[in-house]
């Protein structure tokens, strides 16, 4: 009789656990954005199972590379998402598609554990996440209790089932965000495209008119870009554009947005920043590129840029299109005034290797 009662109690407990897993699945199935997905998943697991530390590891390469920028700048996800080398994940789960429990030699897991948890966690459950059969991440739960995830006493069946559902949801979310990313980004540089520039400028122009806050737009143009393309080929030209875009993004990403306008032209927009400040950002970019040529095959390709800008407070334009037009006109005025000097360095180099 005692064995039957114990069996019935075990069934009831398993039903309760299964219901909790079902509730988590219900919460994540309809989510369309990856940041919301990670936040909801980790918080629901913490709430339903009283797990103190829950996070997701994602590979820092395709097919998830387009998610990195958005997830890394979402402060609410600090310690809830970690981008990790695929090889480090494989080292943890080997070739298994099952959840791995670790409560000994926890230091071997350091690379997949957020830094703020590393000296706290004594046991961890690591569930592989896959898309189209390929490992793309790990769903991890940790506890300071060494017995919480004891491989000798714990069963992983329900965790394995949850990992399958998480993988399906992750696949759907990343596919949806990939389409959005491709629709809003320049395919070569990864910067926002011209359509997004116009939408952002229109919105910020209206806000600036209402609040009196400054708004600045700066055009950037690569000097002698056609000559670089004609001499070294389009592959080199593409690398030049990518190089400029990476450095531009580094200088503006914490204070504004960067866009590829067309061809070798870029635009960055700084809401709340003066024209003087924004032109200094452009000058810093110019100085860096001039001092750090691009290494292309056996060549060090010199790169210089021209720039021009306009702002709400300095120019009082009547529309965002006029603001952009003023910035473009000043770019070409700048180029024409210095055509004899700075691009000469680039042209001399190209003439030398022809």
The gyration radius over C-alpha positions equals: 26 Å
Major sheet size, sense and barrel closure? 5 strands, mixed
Counted by DSSP, the helix tally is 12
Count the domains. Answer: 2
CATH C-level label of the largest domain: Alpha Beta
Order of helices and strands: HHEHEHEEEHHEHHEEHEEEHHH
Structural class: alpha+beta
Mean pLDDT level: 89
Side-by-side strand order of the widest sheet:
2-1-5-4-3
CATH fold field value of the largest domain: Beta-Lactamase
Total DSSP E strands: 11
Overall 3D form: elongated
Give a description of the structure.
By secondary structure, this protein is of the alpha+beta class. Helix content is 51%, strand content 19%. Helix 1 (2-29) runs antiparallel to helix 2 (34-49) and helix 8 (234-252) crosses helix 9 (275-291).
Q: What features would you highlight for this structure?
A:
354 residues; alpha+beta; Beta-Lactamase; Alpha-Beta Plaits; 2 domains; 5-stranded mixed beta sheet; 11 strands; 51% helix
Sequence-ordered SSE layout with sheet pairings:
Layout lengths: L1 H28 L4 H16 L3 E7 L8 H5 L8 E4 L1 H8 L6 E3 L20 E9 L2 E10 L13 H28 L9 H18 L3 E8 L2 H8 L1 H19 L4 E6 L2 E7 L3 H17 L2 E3 L2 E3 L3 E7 H4 L4 H19 L3 H12 L1
Parallel strand pairs: 1-2
Antiparallel strand pairs: 1-5, 3-4, 4-5, 6-8, 6-11, 7-8, 9-10
Provide a concise account of the structure shown:
The chain has 354 residues and is an alpha+beta fold. It has helices at 2-29, 34-49, 68-72, 86-93, 157-184, 194-211, 225-232, 234-252, 275-291, 312-315, 320-338, 342-353; strands spanning 53-59, 81-84, 100-102, 123-131, 134-143, 215-222, 257-262, 265-271, 294-296, 299-301, 305-311.
């Amino acid at each position: 009789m005692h064995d039957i009662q114990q069996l019935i109690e075990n069934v009831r407990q398993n039903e309760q656990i299964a219901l909790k897993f079902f509730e988590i699945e219900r919460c994540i199935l309809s989510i369309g954005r990856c940041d919301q997905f990670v936040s909801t998943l980790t918080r629901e697991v913490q709430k339903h199972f009283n797990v103190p530390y829950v996070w997701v590891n994602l590979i820092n390469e395709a097919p998830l590379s387009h998610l990195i920028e958005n997830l890394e700048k979402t402060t609410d996800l600090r310690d809830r998402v970690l981008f990790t080398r695929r090889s480090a994940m494989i080292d943890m789960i080997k070739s298994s598609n099952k959840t791995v429990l670790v409560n000994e030699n926890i230091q071997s897991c350091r690379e997949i554990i957020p830094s703020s948890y590393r000296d706290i966690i004594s046991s961890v459950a690591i569930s592989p996440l896959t898309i189209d059969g390929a490992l793309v991440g790990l769903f991890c739960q940790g506890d300071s209790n060494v017995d919480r995830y004891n491989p000798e006493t714990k069963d992983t069946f329900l965790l394995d089932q949850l990992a399958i559902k998480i993988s399906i949801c992750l696949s759907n979310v990343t596919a949806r965000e990939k389409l959005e990313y491709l629709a809003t980004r320049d395919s070569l540089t990864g910067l926002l495209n011209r359509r997004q520039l116009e939408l952002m400028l229109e919105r910020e122009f209206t806000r600036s008119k209402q609040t009196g806050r400054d708004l600045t737009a700066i055009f950037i143009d690569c000097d002698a870009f056609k000559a670089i393309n004609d001499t070294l080929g389009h592959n080199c030209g593409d690398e030049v554009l990518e190089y400029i875009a990476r450095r531009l993004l580094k200088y503006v990403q914490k204070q504004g947005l960067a866009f590829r306008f067309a061809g070798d032209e870029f635009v960055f927009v700084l809401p709340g920043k003066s024209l003087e400040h924004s032109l200094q950002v452009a000058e810093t970019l110019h100085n860096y590129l001039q001092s750090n040529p691009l290494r292309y095959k056996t060549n060090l390709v010199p790169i210089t840029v021209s720039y021009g800008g306009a702002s709400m407070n300095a120019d009082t334009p009547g529309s965002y299109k006029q603001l952009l037009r003023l910035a473009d006109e000043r770019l070409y005025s700048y180029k024409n005034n210095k055509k004899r000097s700075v691009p000469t360095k680039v042209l001399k180099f190209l003439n030398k290797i022809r």
